[in-house]
User: Which sequence fits this backbone?
């Protein structure tokens, strides 16, 4: 994932910062508990395509 792109990308819902999870190839929004997949190097920043992170799962 390009670090310059990570610096400018924000959550499409809350406009907050995203956490890059390299091992899962996802961008995580902690406040909204959403994981946005990265496919072929392109982040899929659509709410309908995002994976919901259950409340019982700790985000670090």
Assistant:
């Amino acid at each position: 994932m390009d670090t310059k792109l990570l610096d400018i990308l924000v959550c499409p819902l809350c406009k907050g910062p995203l956490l890059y999870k390299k091992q899962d190839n996802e961008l995580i929004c902690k406040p909204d508990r959403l994981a946005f997949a990265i496919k072929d190097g392109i982040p899929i920043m659509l709410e309908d395509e995002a994976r919901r992170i259950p409340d019982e799962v700790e985000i670090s």
Observations:
- Residues 3-52 form a domain with the N-terminal domain of TfIIb fold (CATH 2.20.25.10).
